[in-house]
Amino acid sequence: MNVPGLAHPTAPGADPRPAALRALLALAVVFVLLATTGWTAVHRPEGGTPLRAASLAAWKSARIDGRPVPPADADAATVARFFAGLDSAQRSDLAENYPLVVGNLDGAPATTRYRANLLGLLQAVQVEEARSRDVALTPADRATAVRRSHRFESLAAPGRQILAFDPTGNGLVAEVCGVLERARLFSV
């Protein structure tokens, strides 16, 4: 193939196909090396954890004493009726087994949500600590994981009342200051 303006390393009258074949082979080798060492893909693992997605998936098939749990997006009245029919041990079991769902269910008792979110925060701390040591991540991603781990630890401190917690992406937290049942002002 003759491209105007490009010098050809082959002698005039010589067959250019072997040189072109060598060039293509060299490019193929370089591409394989780059692809296998990760240079052709930007590795940006999701900031945060897949904990919430896994918890939501498990919640869909959850049962308590043979009864299905309400959908995670059920209205507050439906959730409140469901939790009113549970004893404290059943509420505790749900909070322990599905903390990132129960902790975010509008209509669930506040104390159950606080407990669930504490457990969810502790799980998220463990995940972020593991990410901070993952050599497959970039140094910046490991540093982000350290910051997230410290933030989650501070949210799990005794006395804090976390009403909602989602570690996905940049995260979401709602904290109660005071007694929720006597609140006159809510801000979002």
Task: Give a written overview of the molecule.
With 188 residues, the chain is mainly α. The protein has seven helices and four strands; from the N terminus they run H-H-E-E-H-H-H-H-H-E-E.
Distance between the terminal alpha carbons, to the nearest Å? Answer: 66 Å
Strand content: 5-15%
The tally of helices reads 7
- Classification by helices and strands: mainly alpha
Assembly form of the protein: single chain
Stretches where pLDDT is under 50 for at least 5 consecutive residues are 38-45
The total of beta strands comes to 4
Please state the CA-atom Rg, rounded to the nearest Å.
27 Å
Sheet having the most strands? 2 strands, antiparallel
Mass-distribution shape: elongated
User: SSE string, helix = H, strand = E?
Assistant: HHEEHHHHHEE
State the helicity in percent bands: 40-55%
Mean pLDDT: 83
Strand order of the largest sheet: 1-2
